[in-house]
Structure formats: structure tokens, C-alpha cells
Amino acid sequence: MAKKHRWTLAVIASLGVSGTAWAQERESGAVEMDVRAAHGMSGPQVAIGVNLGLGLGHVYKDGTSRTGAREDLKITDAANASLPLLAEVGYRLNPRFYVGLWGSWEKVFTKTNDISCPENFDCNNYQWRFGPEVRYHINPASGFDPWVGLSVGMEILKSHVKGDTQLPLPTGGFAPARIDTRVEDRGPTYARISVGGDVRVSNYLALGPIITASVGSYTVRTGEQTVTVTGLPAQTSAVSAVDDGFHALFTLGVRGIFRAF
């Protein structure tokens, strides 16, 4: 009986120790998750940023100019720079990985040129870009958390150009006319690489730099041009066909990251 009693006590003690260890492990895991959540290392996130944008390559190739000649429109000839406003919505799966959606609206600061924005014309250009993104955080537990992201997407460039000019007449001479052109160029972002870092300001806010580089192409061009010659009815026609405009876009800016509940 004594042996049986001692064996029973041993089993109870063993179960007690195991139960305590399991409870401690569970509590430790809960604390770890709480720490991750408190430091913005997991859960839903929202980010807003402002950037400076530059581009290389073409808006389109093999277009037809107003004189009937072949023309290519380079980004560097059409624009000085852009001002993208960035927004991100996503979920931090764990301290290392983030998945979400990114989007930007950017004002394009046009450059006077003979092709897309003649002198004394009113030129208004802006662009939408958006798509899914995955991101890897390199050192999530530190005060400065560097990361790298990869995404794809879509680009939509809208242009509105209007102004007064002189059109040549078949009989010779010129006639005053007003030209109003609205064009949309759109196509895929094949790849967009982003690099940045988050500096923790509080448990719910971080700030940091962001740099992006992307390659894409405007594969579809639609729009119409209305020409009004004084004393004659307005004439509207579709914009001429062009070849794809392959290009690279770069941005540099800052962003704020917010925990979303």
C-alpha cells in the first residue's frame, strides 16, 4: 500500500509539473503575441506617403505628329518630374512578412515640347498606379526595421492638352483654331521593387524612407482630339495609333505606418 501511495503521489506531482510547464509555455506564447502586436509586428496596417518621381523611357513610340511625320514621345521630353501620393493597406502576417495592396496618385509636372505640350498650351497630366505587394522585414524587433518589397500592378496616365494655334489651309495661309485633346495611356507594371525602413515612433506609429524602382509599359492608348476652326463646326477624331511605351519609373520619399484596428 505504501508503494502504491508513493506511486500515486509521483503521478500527481508529474502531472502538476507538466501542467505548470504547459501553462507557462502557453502564457509565454500569449505574451510573445502581445509583444508583437504592441510593437506593430503583426496585424492590419495602413501607410500613407509622399514621394518625388522620375521616369526614363517612352510614353509611346511610332506615333504620327500633327504634320504627319513619325514621332516618339520620351518621358524625359514630356515631364520634369511627378509628385506621387502613396497609400498602402495590408496585413503583417508575422514579424517578417507583410502582404497588401499599394496605390498612388501622382501629379505630373509637364515640360513644354512640340509633341505633347506646345508652348502656350494648357497641359494637365496625372497618373494612377496600383497593385498587390509582398514585403520582407529584415530586423523587425529593432527600433529601425529595414525591409524590401516586390509587387506588380497597373498604370493609367491621363493627359488633357488644350490651346489656340494656327492651322495651315489647303488654299494657303493659316486659320486660327483651338485644339482640345484628351488621352489615356495604360498598361502593366511588370515589376516594382521597393526598399525602405520603419523607425518606430510609438506602439502604433512608425515613419521611414521608401525608394521604388519599376518597369512597365503603356500598351493601350485611347482618346480623342477636337479641332475648332473659327467659323466652322468642330471636328472630333480618335487619337492615332502608337506602339507600346516601355519605361522605368523611380520614386523617393517618406511614409507613415499606422496600426489599424
Structure report:
This protein has helices at residues 2-38, 75-78, and strands spanning 43-64, 70-74, 79-92, 97-110, 122-137, 144-168, 174-202, 205-218, 220-229, 235-238, 245-259. With 261 residues, it is an alpha+beta fold. An 8-stranded antiparallel barrel has the order 1-3-4-5-6-7-8-11. The longest helix is centred in the first third of the chain and has 37 residues, at 2-38. It is elongated and about 75 Å long.
Topology:
Layout: H1 2-38, E1 43-64, E2 70-74, H2 75-78, E3 79-92, E4 97-110, E5 122-137, E6 144-168, E7 174-202, E8 205-218, E9 220-229, E10 235-238, E11 245-259
Antiparallel strand pairs: 1-2, 1-3, 1-11, 3-4, 4-5, 5-6, 6-7, 7-8, 7-9, 8-11, 9-10
Tell me the radius of gyration: 30 Å
Average the pLDDT over all residues and give the rounded result.
Answer: 86
The computed structural class is alpha+beta
**Helical element count?**
2
- What is the number of beta strands? 11
Shape by Cα distribution: elongated
Oligomer: single chain
SSE string, helix = H, strand = E?
A: HEEHEEEEEEEEE
Spatial ordering of strands, largest sheet: 1-3-4-5-6-7-8-11
Largest sheet: 8 strands, antiparallel, barrel
How far is the first residue's CA from the last residue's CA? 60 Å
Unreliable stretches (pLDDT < 50, length at least 5) are 11-15, 28-38
Helix residue percentage: 10-25%
Taken as a percent bin, the fraction of beta residues is over 45%
